[in-house]
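During the no-cost extension, the postdoctoral fellow (Dr. R.K.) reprocessed legacy sequence entries with the updated structure-token encoder. One reprocessed record is reproduced below for audit purposes.
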Amino acid sequence: MLAEVLLVLSGHPSAFFTPYPPAQPTTLRISPELEKYLHPGETSSLNTLGSLAWHYTRIRQWSKTTIANAQTSILDLNRAKGKQRETGQGDVYLSALAHGITTVLGGYEAAIVELETKVLEMDEGVVQDLQGHVPLSIIVATFSPWFAPLHSLSDLVDVLSRDSPTPGQLMEMLGELSDTGNPELERIYGRLLTTLESLFVTHLTTFVLFGQAPTTTSRAMPAFALDVGPDALSPRHRTYALNGDLLPRSIGAKSRESMLYVGRVSATLRREGRELPRSMVDALRKAFDGVVVLDDEAGVRSRGLEGLDEAIGMARREVGEWLWRYVLTGSQVIDALETL
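Re-encoded structure tokens follow.
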């Protein structure tokens, strides 16, 4: 029986447990054929473990499917020779989230292996007698720290399976989930949010510092900004628009305008076969990388995207000053003033 319980907790099917309710299962319960031989306390403990196993299996399956879909979509885009078109169901932000959740599940899986090891070694804290009897209460207590995290992550998977949040909405959702009085949930969702914010900053720098702005975007390979065509007032120049799907609502209008300002400079230089000075790019990239910080020991976020305003403001000042010193020559300034 113990081996069967551990297998179920690891996500394997078992005749001892059945999905419940049958029409639209939301948990695993001990089978009716077995339940009649059990004490009510044993039934309750096994149903509790069955519920934990149900949540774990659903979360793991969603994560594997999400990662596989993203990989397939990226391969499809590569086969299309770089053409930006939406293919499959892949989403790079959901894939990053799924990878993060898989890491969280690794802790649960390690707990199963640790319990198995203690049983095999006849650890006195787990095994009750020389016959190797392990009380169900000890198994339930061993996995009790995982009840809240797996239940919460399962609820998150339900939402993500039903809805299709944009990357910005997804980061907002994780931010709300990390604002909790449960330290373990705060740690888990803080780490997951940091993973997505780091990806967001990577996409941000591809536009702001390197001027990458394609004409189309996709969920599998999202662009931070898009080239929307010639400037109506100056056709030899291009106009750009930020990809609103990637931006959380916490990023204000001033920062968005600064992103466009700096990104437009980088994109213009890129079209001319030039780029921002390497020393400036390295310094600004370091500033952007410092926006997302996680306390590795405590597992909590000490900074988040609230530090982005400062970093993008610094980028605007640095790039603006560089333009006036080295790009906007006297004749160009005079031409601009005469045009105005």
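The longest strand covers residues 225-230. The chain has a mean pLDDT of 88. The remaining legacy entries will be reprocessed before the final report is submitted.
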